């Protein structure tokens, strides 16, 4: 899906790591929540409350998911899942454009 229709966008940005990671919340009529954001090159750690599906729209990164010991290479067009109540490490190689879906 290349665009969302009939949604509410929260104006205030989520800003992390001194502005190197930002996102905006998109709320759907059925209660679904997604964020659209940008990550600048760097290394970051994020915790999760809900299960997440991260869709990488553009850019290159490496991800270390919970319970794994090998970094995965991810590029634009790829996606990955992160379990609820966990966390992941991420190395952003080039500017990353992403969409995160929150499940459950």
Radius of gyration: 13 Å
Count the E strands: 11
Amount of helix: under 10%
The top level CATH class name:
Mainly Beta
SS element count, helices: 0
Largest sheet composition: 7 strands, antiparallel
Total domains, how many? 1
CATH overall fold name? Jelly Rolls
Given the C-alpha coordinates, what overall shape results?
globular
Helix/strand-derived category reads mainly beta
CATH evolutionary superfamily: Jelly Rolls
What is the end-to-end distance? 21 Å
Strand-residue proportion: over 45%
Mean residue pLDDT: 96
CATH architectural type: Sandwich
Order of helices and strands: EEEEEEEEEEE
Question: What's the arrangement of secondary structure elements?
Answer:
Layout: E1 7-9, E2 14-16, E3 21-28, E4 33-39, E5 42-47, E6 51-58, E7 60-64, E8 72-75, E9 79-82, E10 87-92, E11 96-103
Antiparallel strand pairs: 1-3, 2-3, 3-4, 4-11, 5-10, 6-9, 6-11, 7-8, 7-10
Short description:
Pfam families: Ppnp. The chain is mainly β.
């Amino acid at each position: 899906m290349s665009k969302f229709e009939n949604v509410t966008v929260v104006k205030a940005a989520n800003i992390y790591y001194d502005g190197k990671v930002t996102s905006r919340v998109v709320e759907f009529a059925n209660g679904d929540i997604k964020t659209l954001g940008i990550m600048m090159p760097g290394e970051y750690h994020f915790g999760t409350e809900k299960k997440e599906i991260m869709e990488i729209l553009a850019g290159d990164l490496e991800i270390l998911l919970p319970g794994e010991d090998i970094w995965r290479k991810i590029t634009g067009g790829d996606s990955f899942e992160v379990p609820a109540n966990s966390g992941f490490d991420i190395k952003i190689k080039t500017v990353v454009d992403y969409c995160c879906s929150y499940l459950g």
